[in-house]
Amino acid sequence: MRTIYDEIYRDLLTKIEQGVYPYQSLIPSEATLTKEYACSHNTLRKAIALLSQQGALQPVHGKGVRVIYQKRPRALFELGGIETFKEAAQRNDLDAKTKVVTFERVTADAELAARTGFEEGANLYYVVRVRIINGKALILDYNYFLAELAANLTEDKARRSIYEYLENKLDMQIATSKRTVTVERVTAEDRRFLDLDSTDYLAVVTGQTFDSYGRMFEFTQSRHRPDYFSFFTVARREV
Predict the structure, then answer these.
(1) Which helix (H) or strand (E) holds 207?
(2) Is 55 helix (H, G, I), strand (E, B) or coil?
(3) Which is it for the CA torsion 75, 79, 85, 89, positive or negative?
(4) Using one digit for the tens of pLDDT, what is the confidence trace for 183-196?
């Protein structure tokens, strides 16, 4: 079910982004799409619901599902969804690479526990990665992963995609992420690893991520050069 749902979601998103289903058009009916994808109505609705949450589609009562996606001039990182760097790069058609500059095991002391939300004494993987986009180092990621839930994580897996490893190899279901966005002054370490030119401030996204059992497995601080990115979420007014 998960595989079918994911394939449908990605195929519909590709068609929306490529203009097969253009802005303000209605996508084919539910009956047509369930026949096209050979899937259940429930599976299709899950894919459409996710696309609606991400601001690509909007169900219209009595009419169908309308496309509200429009391409933006800057690379777009979702705040309302959970998306890997690799997925975001592919979606934005970016030439992206990851350089791992730190990969080690650490034990959470009192200060680190208070800062991240992990228990004191927890065994963690500490990973620092530089994200290189179109030849420029533009993002600096600091990650802590709970070792017992990210078993046998390696530097090579961190270079490729940690979430891909967790989901496809460890069968983890990544469920929820809580995030805070701030603007912070550039540090000496930012200047060491990133191509900042005259930039003095970075957009900083700090988050805690939980699996389907409500266990926090990741704490992240992601530091972005702001002139290359926009951060996007979808809000709905309750009626």
Answers:
(1) strand 201-211
(2) coil
(3) negative
(4) 999 999 999 999 99
Cα atoms in the 13 Å half-sphere on the side-chain side of 116: 29
The span from the CA of 76 to the CA of 22, in Å, is 19
Residue 5 pLDDT more than 80? yes
The tally of CA atoms less than 13 A away on the side-chain side of residue 191 is: 9
Residue 100 token pair: 């791992």
124 bridge partner residues: 106, 146
The b/e string for 195-217 (b: 16+ C-beta within 10 A; e otherwise) is: ebeebeebbbbbbbbebeeeebb
Looking at residues 172-183, what average pLDDT do you find?
91
Q: What is the dihedral of CA 213, 238, 44, 53, to 10 degrees?
A: -70
Identity (one letter) of the amino acid at 135?
G
Residues 6+ apart with CB under 8 A from 201: 183, 184, 185, 186, 226
**CA pair distance 155, 127, nearest whole angstrom:** 8
Q: How many CA atoms lie within 13 A of 167 on its CB side?
A: 15
User: What residue spans of the chain are helical by DSSP H?
Assistant: 2-17, 30-37, 41-53, 85-91, 110-116, 155-160, 162-168, 188-193
User: How far is residue 77's CA from residue 99's CA, in Å, rounded to a whole number?
Assistant: 19
How would you classify the pairing of strands 57-60 and 64-67?
antiparallel
**Percent over 90 (pLDDT), the chain:** 72
Bridge partners, 149 (sequence order): none
Lowest mean pLDDT among 85-94, 111-120, 134-143: 85-94
Look at the block and give the residue holding tokens 């699996």: 211
